[in-house]
User: Fold these one by one.
Assistant:
Number 1:
Amino acid sequence: MIQDIDQLSADYDFIFVEGDQLAYIHFAFYNPFPPQEFIKDAIWQKDGFEAAVEFQKYQFYNFPNWNKITLEEVEKYFTSENSQVLIVVPGKSNKKYDPTNLIYEQKDWRGRVLWEAWQIDSTDVLKNTNLLPVIK
């Protein structure tokens, strides 16, 4: 899955990896992230234990729910009209994303969903929130 997401990554401004606080370890190992850059530039959170929450375009936490997203977050993640965000979810997502935005799905041999990846853009933000971001 990580190699598949890596191949898609060039098309996205940000990639959210949801559901696992230690997902950064897998991405750092399989991508691999340049070790010196990762040590220097990753943003870490200390909450019982230390974990990377951001590195370059990768965000290792949940994308905000539509009803809780702030204008600051919209302006950070959707910096232009063409901004694209990829949301990678373990299992089947329980969020209400447009079904046409599902661009990746990995299933096990029984047909159970292991991973999904959803493409979100500024149009989705405008459709699903009452925020009117300043899109450059």
Number 2:
Amino acid sequence: MKYNEYTFPREFNYSKLDEKRVFMLIDMQPEYLICVKPEKMNQMLKNQLNVLSYCSNHDIPVIVLEYEEKGKTLETLTDIIRYIPRHSFLTKDMNNGFTNPNLIKQLKRWNVEEVYLMGVNASLCVKQTAEGVLENGFSIATAEKVIGNMGNFFSDLSKDWYNSNGIYLED
């Protein structure tokens, strides 16, 4: 399968665009994932692993956001992330990852323009971090196959918000 079959609606052959892009993995910690339906979890994890593999092969930076005191990101994901030349693990103490001032510093250091969001909780932590991305002048993109919510609840309002504020690819 090709990379763009699981993620975003842009052409992902390596290009100069890759130099302005970062993937952000949010709250993929066991405590949050136990509430995600198993079939959604398996699909989301498979697609995230494919995205991370692409990032590793093309030196596209990845930022991992972890909620403080909620454990570490799944080892399955971190096993790939450690091979990505430009990666950063940051903690946050609120839903919005921009509560950590090092996040904006890292994005600027890497000269980022676009932030591609992956992780959980799509209607809360991912969305509030996406709002922070936009407030700081970057653009956003995400796909239903790489974000999840607790249970099956992902409201049309949240989908509409992602569609209105960036690129959102549905299943």
